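Field reference: sequence -> structure
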Amino acid sequence: MDELHAGDAELCAGGGAQRLAAEGETSLARLIMDGGDLPHAASHLGNAVAIDPLLPETHEALSELAARAGGPRAALALFPLENPYIGAVVCHAHLQAACGEWSEAVGLIATAIRAEYDRPWSQVAWLTQDRLPDLLPPDVMTQALARAVGGALPDPIPEPARDALRPFYDLAAAVIARHPADARLAAIGSGLARRFGDTGRAVAWAEQARRAEPGHVASVMLGYALRAADRPDEAVRVWEEEIERDDSDLSLMVDIAELYTSTGRPAQGLAWAERAAAADPAHPQAAPAVHGVRFAADGAAAHLLALADHLRAHPDHGYAAVVLTRHSESRAWLGTVDQATEATVNVLHQILQSADAGPDRDGPSRLVSSTVEPPSAGLAFRLAFPHAELSAESVGAPDPRVPVGQPDARGPMADPDQRQTSGDADARARVQVWRYAGLDPYPAVPPPAPEAGRLVQDTAAFSWPHIPAAYDHAVRLAGLALDDLLGVLVHPPVPPDDEFGGVLRDHRPELWVRGVQTFGCLGIAHHRTDQPWAGSERRRVLLDLLNGPEDWITESAAFALVAVGWVEPAARADVGARLAERLAAAGRARLTREVTILGSLCRLVLLCPWLDQDPAGREATAAARGLLAELDAEAPDPPAAPADHRGAQPPAPARDPSVGRKARTPRRGLFRRRRD
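Structure field:
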């Protein structure tokens, strides 16, 4: 919380009982005041303000406390600013305003805004009085703006938070109007106006600053304002003129590069990013920008892998994570699970989208597919309709029920080279989580322990910032027993009992199943990481799952292997070769039957760009692109999804459809549930 301590987490958490809790704190403060313990009473008033900044009774009690202390100036000592929590800071501000110390009071309100911008700290009578703009020197307002805008204030500010900040914004506007020649005040004010979505005023203030004092800050802020006003060519012109005058700002070169790129001119953007990187190869933004612009130009996953490698080598370069996240968002396996394409899932969507919501959720229903499909599709169907009966009428060849590399009753092994996929010297039994009775699949492993299921439920997600972030997040599962991690793959826990969990159950249950399986396999990737990769149990199990009966778990295991390759360069050659082999088997199977997971496997192979370093690998990636071109020509549009609950905008598609395919899914970003 920057300068502020959080104080009592429960008290500051908010919720429906906010007003009641603030009233309770205020009442308790009054009782303690009556007993004469003013410091103790002050702590409860600070809690009350932190819970509900606008409760009138609290402000009345604060006035009473000041009177008992001998006046507002004496009461300041009851709210010391050494290691304070936010309620104490705001109370201190109100008391300073009562003393007529307007500059100090406004500065403290700005500090509170920096800490929690969406709370109504500035909605107080003293800050909205007409005479206050005349009482504030411009440098004081400039410092307050810098403190608020330069902190965690988002761009743009979410609509609901703008009301909370409106009095502070109006005060800034009034002070700027009174001091039109103060360039720094107008320039920083432009940043606040831009965040409010007031782009016309943002441009006007930045131009005012530039006229008053032409210089770097004013030019940079004018470019930002013009960009926000959807005037990119003017923004670029302003910035390029400034670089001609002073080429020391490499971050501004990166801004130019990204503005060109975001407006469909990556070649021009790349020149600027490379210029910045050449000027300072260690610059925290330049090299990441080069990789990001190159990805925007051609969609090759190699650029994102280079970004991930850069971030691993320079974990303090947060901009690399920003760029990697931006280009991973909504793209299959880069930032979200791939789409399920099975007929079972298509029927499920049709039922869930029908006006009458289809059959009774708790009643019996029956679905018959013409051929055997991945059994996990049945898990998704039963998540919506627990008592559904699913069956298949036939099975294609090669038999999808038989693991790759094992004999098929219909003929010889699909790929003799995969007889010893596990690589175990002691010939341990192959891990298999599905078994079949005829054409009907059943879990071959028991359910996980309840506590393991709860941890997976709290960890699983069907979207993530980028591949290394997903891998790192799954470390929470490293302590689970291997049997539990295998169990969740075929006995997934139900979605969380919250609003978004309900959206998944009601509209897209397959996303939850795929998310659980993905993080279950990522958990396996963290199993016994003390063992070297080549002979490790985690490798053996993931390869067994990769080559097991054809299923969504095949995809999840493939993704876990890709993630291992992204974070462990020494494992890349092995991971790429194993995925190429699995894709080859799926490609052969497609010659005689449908392979619903084929497109996903293609995209996963293309997330192993190191394959292009040798002829055999290039053959695999070329095959993946060719198969994807065929599949994309045949495929209908994926189903409509519920609206994005975060309101995030997906990135523009990359040129390479194999990497840039955007998943049309609702987004529950990784870690999001725990922040809500």
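Note: The chain has 33 helices and four strands.
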